[in-house]
From TrEMBL:
Keywords: Disulfide bond, Endonuclease, Endoplasmic reticulum, Glycoprotein, Hydrolase, Lyase, Lysosome, Nuclease, Secreted, Signal. One of its GO terms (molecular function) is hydrolase activity. Ribonuclease that plays an essential role in innate immune response by recognizing and degrading RNAs from microbial pathogens that are subsequently sensed by TLR8. Cleaves preferentially single-stranded RNA molecules between purine and uridine residues, which critically contributes to the supply of catabolic uridine and the generation of purine-2',3'-cyclophosphate-terminated oligoribonucleotides. In turn, RNase T2 degradation products promote the RNA-dependent activation of TLR8. GO terms for cellular component: endoplasmic reticulum lumen; extracellular region; lysosomal lumen. This is Uncharacterized protein. Belongs to the RNase T2 family. It comes from Callithrix jacchus. GO terms for biological process: RNA catabolic process. It is found in: Endoplasmic reticulum lumen; Lysosome lumen; Secreted. The active site is at H58, E107, H111. SUPFAM superfamilies: Ribonuclease Rh-like. Its main location: endoplasmic reticulum. Residues 1-20 form the signal peptide.
Length: 246
């Protein structure tokens, strides 16, 4: 057989946890996902307690790959120095997990093990640390502020404002209106990044619209959960927080 076929078992045996399964888990861009606690808690009121009044991290996700290495277990000790920031800016808003670190365990195993294809993200310390760095650098809370309780505005204006700030096309997710509501509600913002150096890039190209599909961020919220979707054209509401300013 060709020599390269003989080398494959050896490569597999030597492969460290950072090795990528390129054929099954290749991806092209990263997505920094941030959600608005007031909207999250509006959907899961019984499970959401004392939500922060600022945008928080949902995760840093490769765009087309999940659960790349089930044997690479989450280890809280590797991010001990990050815990103060993690608790503040990356909380488990809807309390689906038995303890705070279980949410981070979920994000690592589902998304972090795939992001580890990149040298800058190829350990738990690097993955969580780099995500916090990007959160601080992009500083969504500086640019995006809630509207008055009675004010609705076109979602296109919201998207255009973000595009002017970041000079890329973001993706915005909304909570669809319930039977008692008239408009959709801003819930989540995705800012997309290049794979190797984590620089901002378009989430969609000009003229390309993302599919209006239901997202899974409220998984476990019950069969009646509306879930977040890519915002429809039309008016949108950005609810102010109920607690004092952070």
């Amino acid at each position: 057989p060709p020599p390269f076929l003989l080398r494959l078992p050896l490569l597999s045996a030597l492969c460290a946890p950072t090795c990528a399964l390129v054929d099954r888990h290749e991806w092209k861009k990263l997505i920094l996902v941030q959600h608005w606690p007031e909207t999250v808690c509006e959907e899961v009121q019984k499970d959401c307690r004392d939500p922060p009044n600022y945008w928080t991290i949902h995760g840093l996700w490769p765009d087309s790959s999940e659960n790349c290495n089930g044997s690479w277990k989450f280890n809280l000790k590797e991010i001990q120095d990050l815990l103060p920031e993690m608790k503040e800016y990356w909380p488990d808003l809807i309390h689906l997990f038995p303890n705070r670190s279980s949410f981070w365990n979920h994000e690592w195993r589902k998304h972090g093990t795939c992001a580890a294809q990149v040298d800058a993200l190829n350990s738990q310390r690097k993955y969580f640390g780099r995500t916090l760095e990007l959160y601080r650098e992009l500083d969504l809370n500086r640019w995006v502020r809630p509207s008055f309780p009675w004010l609705h505005f076109p979602v296109a204006d919201f998207k255009d404002a973000l595009a002017r700030v970041y000079r890329v096309i973001p993706k915005i997710h909304c909570l669809p209106p319930s039977q008692d509501e008239e408009v959709q509600t801003i819930g989540q913002i995705e800012l997309c990044l290049t794979k190797q150096d984590q620089k901002l890039r378009n989430c969609t190209e000009p003229g390309q619209e993302p599919p209006h599909k239901k997202e899974v961020w409220l998984a476990g919220g019950g069969t009646e959960s509306r879930g977040l979707r890519v915002c429809e054209d039309g008016p949108v509401f950005y609810p102010p927080p109920k607690k004092a300013k952070h």
